[in-house]
Structure formats: C-alpha cells, structure tokens
Amino acid sequence: MTVQEHRFPCEQCGADLRFDPVQNKLVCDFCGHSEAVEKGDYAGTAIKELDFEQAIRHQLPQAEIEETRVSACPNCGAQVEINEKDHAVECPFCATPVVTDTGTHRHIKPKALLPFGLDETQARDAMTKWLGQLWFAPNGLQEYARKGRKLNGIYVPYWTYDADTKSSYTGERGDDYYTTRRVVRNGKSQTIRQRHTKWRRASGQVARFFDDVLVLASKSLPKRYTDGLQPWNLSELQPYSPDFLAGFRAEGYQISLEDGYTEARAYMDAMILRDVKFDIGGDRQKVHSINTTISDVTFKHILLPVWLAAYKYRGKTYRFVVNGQTGKVQGERPYSAWKIAFATIIGLIVAAGVGYIVAQNK
Length: 362
What we know:
The protein is of the alpha+beta class.
C-alpha cells in the first residue's frame, strides 16, 4: 500500500495549497489566496472504463500506469510516500513514525474520485458525536479525540467492476398447501394444521447487467469499518484530477485487480442466485445448477474520501473512520472498565430492589 501526499504551491506566497471541501476551491491558509479546481483532461466527459482482460494480460496503455517511491511503516506495514523535502512522517493508519527507506511501487492510475464533501472540523464533529453515543466509551478518550490531533484526510482505493451476465438454471419450485386433522391432547380435541409442499421441476434463464460493483482495494483498515461507511453516492464521481488531492493523501491499492474481481464475482453470483429463486417463484425453491456466461467485463480504479483518526490512549491505539462524503462514522468500540463496573453495580442494586419488592408482596 502506498499513501501518497500531494502538494501544490500557492502562486502568491509559495505555501502549500489545500482543497477546501466547503468552498470547493484550492485555498492557501497562509495568505488567503484561492484558486478554482482544475478538473483535469476528462472534465465534462464520461468516466472511461478499462478492459479487464486487457489489464490482467498486462496490455493496458502505458498512460494508465504510474510509479511512485514509498517507505514501509514498521508497525502496520503501510507504505507511505514521503515527500523528498521530508525525512520522516507519521503513519496515518497507526500513528507510528516512518523514516525514509524508499522502494518503487507500480500501479494502475486512478480513473475517478469522489471529492471530499466534509472538512476536518465537520468530520471531527461527526466523530465526537458518534463517540458520545457510546455509553461505555472512556470519557478521557472522548475528550482527547475532541481536542486531540487533526484527522487525516485520505483517499482510499477501490475497484469497480461492470459485467454483462446471462445465466441458465435448473431447479425445483415448491408450492405449499395445508391439511387439517383432529387430535386429542390431554383429553382435549384439537385441530392441527399441517403444511405440505408440492415440488415440480423448473428451469429457465435470467440476465443482469452489473454496474459499479464496489470492492475495497486496501488492507490498511478493517473491512468491517469501510463496509460500514456505505452507501457511497457514486453518481457524484469526478474524473481524476490531482487538484482534488491537494492537502490530502491518497492510498495505493493492496488488493490486486484479479483478487478484487474474485470478490466482485462472489457478490454477482449471490445476486444471480437471488434472481434465479425469484424467477422460479412459488413458496420455496431448490436450485440444482446455475451456468453463467459473463462478458464485457470492465473496471475502474477509483478513490473515495475518508477522514481517519488514530489515537494512542493509555497504551492502546483506537482508530476511527469518517465517510468524507456523508459523515457516517465507524471505528473500534472503546470500553471503560469503570463505567461497565458502575453499570453492573447499579444493575445489581436495581435487581435486588425488585426482588425485595416481589418478596414483600408475597
């Protein structure tokens, strides 16, 4: 994985510009100068899909490939691109210092991205509100997160896959019917309703075009966190332009195109199975076989915006992620031993009180 930091000098003072999600401009915090975002060569055109088969045969045009120089985090393995002016940085994923030790990383260029829609202040507000809703979170961590270090804005890599599928299937359709009978239980006559299923063979075809099946291409964060940030509004994707990355970092992918496609196919197969069961109909379905023909597979490498916080509190690292488009928060759920013990004592007191009242009423 590569975490790449993008810097753009201000025309007025030479300080670094950053992309401001609120103003949707490049701004200079030093002198106040602002510039419009350069939308790139493909502005106003449809975002181009790339051919999957061509990519796995390493036949993509050279213009779709780039190389970066990186340094590995000694703690979590993240590969952080260090600017040539810097000698050390902090890993945004685990807060470990990373010193210069470069290597080369070759990868497929991003084709599109979702620009950040929230600034750091808005993301922090969303995170502290989320922490405040966790009953057993340590108060010290909540306060530390509220006043602590800045969140890191990172574009996280994803693959999207498109595919046209046609599937033939065989199976059985089950239609339920019911019968009643009289039985005697404990000396009383009762009517019992019993379900039966009549099965008959079924076969047919289903077809589905899959558009933008989204697969996380990073290993730096637990997948359950990033999955929890969904949904993303991919209709707002913009053609890739470095200007959107000013002041942020962009992570390179760790999940290969082929491995990402394996995950995408698992999702597609599950959807096709659901389509088959719906096509069979009835009350119950048995699916014996599905034969799927898949064609016109294309993909995109895209970047999605995430605000990331990594806090070391009392010897443990807590990580939180905020959807940079919607403000949805996920993270490690911290627990306060004191709060849990207090809640347990209160619970025991309440239970004892209820038990005493019940005993007195008896």
